[in-house]
Amino acid sequence: MTHKPSDIAAGTSRPLLRAVSPHSEANDNGAPSLSSRNPLEVLAQEHRFQAEVCNGLERIADGLPDELDRRLCQQVVSCLRYDLPLHHRDEEKGLFPLLRRRAAPGDSIHEVLDHLERDHSTDEGFADELIETLDRLAAGHRPPNPEMVGYMLRGFFEGYRRHIHWEETLVIPLARQLLTEEDRAELAACMSANRLGEQPCRK
Ligand SMILES: [Fe+2]
Fold first, then answer.
1. Which residues have a beta carbon within 5 Å of ligand 1, which is an ion?
2. Could you give the CA distance from residue 202 to residue 168 in angstroms, rounded to a whole number?
3. Which one of 77, 112, 166, 171 counts the least CB within 10 Å of its CB?
4. Interacting residues of 35 by C-beta distance below 8 A, sequence separation 6+
5. b/e for 167-193, b at 16 or more Cβ within 10 A?
6. Which backbone phi and psi does 186 adopt, to 5 degrees?
7. Cα distances (angstroms) measured from residue 26 to each of 96, 106, 117
8. How large is the average pLDDT for residues 76-81?
9. How far does residue 89's CA lie from ligand 1's centre (Å)?
10. Distance, CA 149 to ligand 1 centroid (Å)?
11. pTM of the prediction?
12. Class assignment of domain 16-195?
């Protein structure tokens, strides 16, 4: 059975994240392996998935404190814990170094990439706090301070939506323009290595 990202927004009880994530090198539903796909399209697909996760976080915030979807909390935790850091590694170890190599030395994209990397670090720290909170909500605990939890959730998804927007409007289009066929193959290999826990390909 296949699952779609929209399952998060729909709040279904399916174990969706492993299946919808474009991360798996060989997935069990017969979809093409990562190495045979355009890695930039995989990253763009991951951004769409992350946007769904942000929608899920917003639903959780809107449901506080009494109308919580515990299953949704679990699904979002899985994404924050596994998918988000992996996606960041794909970009930091794969895409960004290739773009820096292809962009002109004085191009403003260098500063943009530096900024986005700092975002990744901040967001992962923030996500760790959310994971702890969402784990407790998923286990049925009532939040001691719903306003504070809502504030945390909104701070994260609003910031992350802006982050996705920058990457989708600036970074991915530039990569489509600048990266050669060889670069794309290198990026795909790097992403595969990330999924296998191997050392990243770029120095
Ligand atoms: Fe990204």
1. 167
2. 22
3. 166
4. 25, 188, 189, 192
5. beeebbebbeebbeeebbebbbbbbbb
6. -65, -40
7. 24, 40, 28
8. 96
9. 9
10. 25
11. 0.83
12. mainly alpha
3-state secondary structure of 183: helix
Compute the distance from residue 172 Cα to the ligand 1 centre, in Å: 9
Please list, residue by residue across 76-94, b when 16 or more beta carbons sit within 10 angstroms of its beta carbon and e when fewer do: bbbbbbebbeebbbbbbbb
Query: How far is Cα 185 from Cα 165, in angstroms, rounded to an integer?
Result: 25
Q: How far is the CA of 65 from the centre of ligand 1 (A)?
A: 31
Question: How many Å lie between the centroid of ligand 1 and the Cα of residue 95?
Answer: 10
pLDDT band at 124 (very low <50, low <70, confident <90, very high): very high
Residue 42 CA to ligand 1 center (angstroms) comes to: 10
CA dist., res. 38 & res. 119, Å (int): 25
Predicted local distance difference test score (pLDDT) of residue 37: 85
pLDDT tops 80 at residue 180: yes
Ligand 1 centroid to 88 CA: how many Å? 6
Pair of tokens at residue 181? 């066929």
Q: Does the pLDDT value for residue 16 go beyond 70?
A: no
pLDDT tops 80 at residue 191:
yes
- Output the CA 87–ligand 1 centroid distance in Å: 6
Share of the chain above pLDDT 70, in %: 80
Lowest mean pLDDT among 63-67, 88-92, 181-185: 63-67
